[in-house]
Design goal:
Elements: H1 2-10, H2 12-18, E1 30-31, E2 35-37, E3 44-46, H3 49-63
Antiparallel strand pairs: 1-2, 2-3
The structure holds zinc ion.
């Protein structure tokens, strides 16, 4: 899980893309495996199927080293 953060760390442009801002209070939302959640006001935005699959295949690739 942690390595995902390393990946985005390399490219700050990606961070802005991955990090969602809460439409209610405009603070950064926590990135969960299937959703983004705001810790301040409790707003939750569910990820699209595409977003979920993307993360999954990435993890699979890294774990499955031939
Ligand atoms: Zn919020």
């Amino acid at each position: 899980m942690a390595y995902e953060y390393y990946n985005v760390d390399k490219d700050y442009k990606k961070i802005t893309l991955l990090k969602r801002k809460c439409p209610r209070c405009n603070s950064f939302m926590a990135d969960h495996y299937d959703r983004y959640a705001c810790g301040k006001c409790g707003y939750t935005a569910f990820k699209t199927q595409e977003e979920k699959t993307k993360g999954k295949s990435k993890t699979k690739k890294a774990a499955k080293k031939k």
